[in-house]
Design goal:
It is a single chain. By secondary structure, the protein is of the alpha/beta class. It has one domain: Alanine racemase (TIM Barrel), CATH 3.20.20.10. It is about 40% helix and about 20% strand. It contains nine helices and eight strands. An eight-stranded parallel β-sheet has the order 7-6-5-4-3-2-1-8. Bound molecules: pyridoxal-5'-phosphate. The site of pyridoxal-5'-phosphate (PLP) has 14 residues, from strand 8 and helix 9.
Length: about 220
Amino acid sequence: MSIKANLERIHKSLPGKTILVAVSKTKSKEEIMEAYETGQRIFGENKVQEMVSKWENLPKDIRWHMIGHVQTNKVKYMAPFVSLIHGVDSLKLLKEINKQGLKNQRVIDCLLQVHIAKEDSKFGLSEEGLMAVLKDITNLELKNIRITGLMGMATYTDETNTIRSEFKYLKRLFDQIREKNENLRVLSMGMSADYKIAIEEGSTMVRIGSSIFGQRNY
Ligand SMILES: *Cc1c(COP(=O)(O)O)cnc(C)c1O
């Protein structure tokens, strides 16, 4: 199937309001342009350098989302243009994003990543960690970042019950903290294998790569 046909099929299966991030990591400029020509404008990358190079060489109305783990020392390279950073999981990183936002005279939108999977991972906040970071942000009055929502990745498994309960958990956290923060409107959950479950559980933004572009060759 072509990239165009894949995008059409996916759009048909998404509720109208859902935001589709086309995950283009490892994919060429030509492949990205094929998606662009169908009207897709949001692309997700997981490596800062790769995203910067694509930003430099592709149309400027593309909105670039950083979906991978970000090292503090790389924030400066994407701060001039990044549209949304999905994987923020520490106050240290937030402070650096704020600093680089100030240097570039912009407010950078961020999602806090919550660890919801059973798999061990260094990435993502625990529930307690999330609450602590939210409290710190309020106290510090960081003016050049805006927390617009949460992001999570479910366990890589065929057991749909496990995936569903992890997404349910993230949605519950999202609703809980949204009561105190009206900026929160993005719930980024769901990838090629599990986005349909994520949508049923309240996702507002899905990050889909291989179902659009085919398998990645690393
Ligand atoms: C690669 C990646 C995706 C997309 O994965 P697919 O299975 O190809 O849809 C989504 N989210 C994150 C954080 C990723 O790194």
